[in-house]
Write a structure and sequence with these properties.
two-stranded antiparallel ribbon, 2 strands
Length: about 90
């Protein structure tokens, strides 16, 4: 990556950070989340949005974990087969 591309990437990241910071500052009004049995949680709107975004991202990563582990083990097994010279389907011409 060239130096110009790196500088542009940092500028875009900085601009995105400033936009999100401004959004958080503008939405600092408290909101109340009501649960069952009379339980409540009061927090700034930006914090609630961030918490639910973070929870969704973590659930997405957990959903990808099992297939990723399965693929890694299959790749490891196939590499071992190739290194031993015994492909499962027989010789290919």
């Amino acid at each position: 990556m060239t130096r110009l591309a790196q500088v542009l990437a940092w500028l875009v990241k900085g601009l995105l950070f400033l936009l999100l910071l401004g959004l958080a500052i503008k939405n600092s009004d408290p909101v109340t989340l009501r649960y069952y049995l009379g339980l409540e949680w009061q927090a700034p709107l930006a914090l609630v949005l961030f918490a639910f975004f973070l929870a969704g991202a973590l659930m997405g990563l957990l959903a990808l974990l099992a297939p990723w582990v399965r693929q890694r083990s299959e790749i490891r097994r196939l590499r071992a087969e190739l290194s031993h010279g015994n492909p499962r389907d027989g010789p290919h011409a």
